[in-house]
Specification:
By secondary structure, the chain is an alpha/beta fold. It has 2 domains: 8-116 and 274-281, Alpha-Beta Complex (Aldehyde Oxidoreductase, domain 3), CATH 3.90.1170.20; 124-271, TIM Barrel. Helices cover 43% and strands 18% of the residues. The chain is built from 11 helices and 12 strands. The chain has helices spanning 8-23, 29-34, 56-66, 95-124, 144-153, 171-177, 180-190, 204-213, 226-236, 253-257, 268-271; strands spanning 40-47, 51-52, 71-74, 81-82, 87-94, 132-134, 167-169, 197-201, 218-222, 241-245, 263-265, 278-281. The strands form 3 sheets. A 6-stranded parallel β-sheet has the order 6-11-10-9-8-7. The protein has a 4-stranded antiparallel β-sheet with strand order 3-5-1-12, with helices on one face. Strands 2-4 form a two-stranded antiparallel sheet. α8 runs parallel beside α9 (226-236). The longest helix has 30 residues, at 95-124. It is elongated and about 75 Å long.
């Protein structure tokens, strides 16, 4: 699935912050010292390992923020599969500008492409099922928006972006509020009709309480073994959406998807993805 790019206006603050961090108080002193004024060059952003692209819009914006005169040609768009040696992007213009933006552009592109690549590996394990792979809020502070966008580029889906998106009742909420029935009764009494509610359970007797009480739209099945997930799907019989979470390793995804759960969520998509090796060559 192809997703439209995010507005540059939303992305600019985080990219500007990264550029300010890298350029410091006096700019790129190496480039200013050794590159003659007026030197132009053409740089090529190349793939050095296979994967899926994400962060191209951000990399291009990093170059443009440093120098709006740079000419950028994108050969692989976000969501595309790449192989070693593939030309991903060309940047032509001031050599000093390209060098000054290089690290920030590569940091974003490599990090986000790594997330997209890991997500695609998870999604591949659900082939032939109706299960969707989704991320969590276990993201890098300040980068949640683009990391979740990278999950989409890998074929996954997004969970909440923030605490204000939906009601997600976790075990600590249940403990503090006095049980499953009290929290669901509070949802029915107080929540807006525009807000969806998900509740976490880790035992089948808790799931039975949720089904009996009502008030939830989704149930998060936390750290259940595969046999218990099968039983949860059978008990629910399509009345609520089911999300399997906790200990969702890549090698386990296929068997979990086969249980019939609607979603598999994994924080690993964002917190454990390895940076994809991309290089900028003059």
């Amino acid at each position: 699935m192809t997703y439209p790019p995010l507005p540059d206006l939303i992305l600019e603050p985080m990219i500007r912050a990264a550029l300010h961090e890298d350029l410091g108080t006096y700019g790129d002193i190496t480039t200013r010292t050794v590159i003659p004024v007026g030197t132009t060059y053409q740089a090529r952003l190349n793939a050095r390992e296979p994967g899926f692209v994400s962060g191209q819009q951000i990399a291009a914006l990093a170059f443009r923020l440093v120098d709006p005169e740079l000419k950028i040609t994108v050969h692989k768009t976000d969501g595309d599969r790449i192989e070693p040696g593939d030309l991903v992007m060309e940047i032509q213009g001031s050599a000093a500008s390209i060098l000054s933006a290089e690290r920030v552009a590569l940091n974003f592109a490599g990090r986000l492409s790594g997330i997209a690549t890991l997500t695609a590996a998870f999604v591949a394990q659900t082939k032939g099922t109706g299960t969707r792979v989704t991320c969590t809020r276990k993201t890098t502070p300040g980068l949640r928006l683009v990391e979740k966008q990278a999950v989409l580029h890998g074929g996954g889906f997004n969970h909440r972006f923030s605490l204000s998106d939906a009601i997600l009742i976790k075990d600590n909420h249940i403990a503090a509020a006095g049980g499953i029935r009290p929290v669901l009764q509070a949802v029915k009494a107080k929540a807006s009709h525009m807000v969806r509610c998900e509740i976490e359970v880790d035992r089948l007797d808790q799931l039975a309480q949720v089904l009996d009480e009502g008030g939830a739209d989704v149930v998060l099945l936390d750290n259940m073994d595969t046999a218990t997930l099968h039983e949860a799907v059978k008990m629910t019989a399509g009345k609520l959406l089911l999300e399997a979470s906790g200990n969702m390793r890549l090698e386990r995804i296929a068997e979990v998807a086969a249980t019939g759960v609607d979603y598999i969520s994994s924080g690993a998509l964002t917190h454990s993805a390895q940076t994809l090796d991309l290089g900028l060559d003059f």
